[in-house]
Amino acid sequence: MKSIVDHLAQYAAYHRNRKNVATHIVGIPMIVVGIISLLSRPALPLDYLLITPASLVVLAAVIFYIRLDIKLGLLMTVLLWLSLAIGRDIAALPTMLWLSWGIGLFVVGWIFQFIGHYFEGRKPAFVDDIMGLAIGPLFVVAEVVFILGFRKDLKAAVEQKL
Hints:
2 strands; about 75% helix; 7 helices
């Protein structure tokens, strides 16, 4: 399994332009919430849990992120849990509104992505490695963490690998 440094460096190589990173900071959360919203139906109530396709996908993602890096993995867990809550609220809307919000967030998020890659002048990372779809949300969180001045060791390791 690749390390977090390997994954982030490979993804970062496709995202050197600051405008591209900025569009990803906006677009990727929209895509994540859109997908989670769309996967929040059907729901199977099980005692105090609500099992949905979204909750299963989030569980798999959380395991993946925590195995890569415990600190960022725990932060991703919180953010994905919040996304699940938003997704459940959207899924509770009437069907047309649920689909409009879910598909709308997904499409607008991808428009941000493609605008960013226009500035970058390079194709998205997932075109060459499908894992880019899983690393994108982690990359956005890591970039915000780096901007806030945290995890300087990780940032330096990623930049050294570029």
